[in-house]
Structure formats: C-alpha cells, structure tokens
Design brief:
The protein is α+β, with helices and mostly antiparallel strands. The protein has a single domain, classed as Peptide deformylase (Peptide Deformylase, Alpha-Beta Complex). 29% of the residues lie in helices and 28% in strands. It has 3 helices and 7 strands. Strands 1-2-3-6-7 form a 5-stranded antiparallel beta sheet, with helices on both faces. The chain has a two-stranded antiparallel ribbon with strand order 4-5. Strand 4 and strand 5 form a beta hairpin. The protein binds nickel (II) ion. Nickel (II) ion (NI) binds next to helix 2.
Length: 177
C-alpha cells in the first residue's frame, strides 16, 4: 500500500484510545511498513503513531535523524512509559495538527517498555528529543495531542484559526466546477 493518508485534527480517530496489538500478523507488518513509508514521505517527520493513519492500534515509530529514508528507525508496539524524570521545554509540531507549533513541557528522560515488530520485548532509555518524541507518540495512542498540553487560551486561538482556514478552503473549493 505504501504511503497512507494522514488523519488531521479534529478527526475523532485522534481522540480514541488505541487498542493493544495482540497478534503481530501480516496485516500489522504491512501497517508498520506503510507507516514507515508515510513518515519518511512527510517532510521533517520524526515520529508517527498508528492512529494518525486511521488505525487505532498501539504502534509508534520514530527516527530523529529526520532523513527521508530509514536511518535510525525504531518501531515500538504497545509502548508504555515506566519511568520519567526531569523537565524539558521544546517547540513541538505534529503531522496531524496543521500549521501550528507551540512550546510543550515534557519529561527530559523516559524509560519505555514495549515489543518490537518481531514480538521481542524491548526497553528504551532516551533523553532529549528522542524522549520528547516518545512522549508525543505515546500520547497519540491515548487520544492526547500536543495542543492538550498548552494553555486553554492558546488552544482556543488555534481552534478559531483552524476553523477560519477550513471554512475558507470549503468556500474556495465550492467555486470549482
Ligand atoms: Ni503528532
């Protein structure tokens, strides 16, 4: 299948809690390959969660090298944060949140447990950008977006701006024959 469509806010699939993967079958392997194609195809993408391509199962991947081909790709199924400490503030963006970036507070270091695509248990200890991406992608699996971590005022401003943009797009597209 290759590159898949990326679901964007306010689509409700982004708000669902994704279900754990229980059987790593051919369909799941295909989904992982498609997610990788999708992530490397998108510009400046360093992480992706399965519900962003409309599949609410617990799969995340990231590659903080930000290249357009697999370099340091890490795929994690059923990831869980088991330890977190420190504080780091970084400007985040998201493939599912159009045209918006904002500072988000995260733990500086995390330990994450999960399984790889062969079903082997893995534990990752990451800090800095990799720790941020892990928290951002695991949030996705729980229906949480980075805009949930900013102030209500800023979130409302974004929602208003997005609404205007979507209305404008609808108006201009309705004029085409
Ligand atoms: Ni995201």
């Amino acid at each position: 299948m290759g590159v898949r469509w990326i679901v964007t806010y306010p689509d409700t699939v982004l708000r669902e809690r994704a279900e754990p993967v229980t059987d790593i079958d051919g369909k799941i392997q295909q989904l992982i390959d498609d997610m990788a194609d999708t992530m490397y195809h998108a510009q400046n993408a360093i992480g992706l969660a399965s519900n962003q391509v409309g599949e609410p199962c617990r799969i995340i991947m990231f590659d903080i090298s930000a290249k357009d081909a697999p370099n340091d790709l890490i795929v994690l199924l059923n990831p869980e944060i088991i330890e977190a400490d420190g504080l780091i503030v970084n400007e985040e963006g998201c493939l599912s949140i159009i045209d918006y970036r904002a500072d988000v507070k995260r733990s500086e270091r995390v330990t994450v447990k999960g399984i790889d695509r062969e079903g082997n248990p893995i534990t990752l200890q990451k800090e800095g950008l990799a720790a941020i991406v892990l928290q951002h992608e695991i949030d996705h699996l729980n229906g949480t977006l980075f805009i949930d971590h900013i102030s209500k005022l800023r979130r409302e401003l974004y929602k208003r701006r997005l609404k205007k943009k979507l209305l404008k797009e609808r108006d201009s597209s309705s004029q085409r024959l």
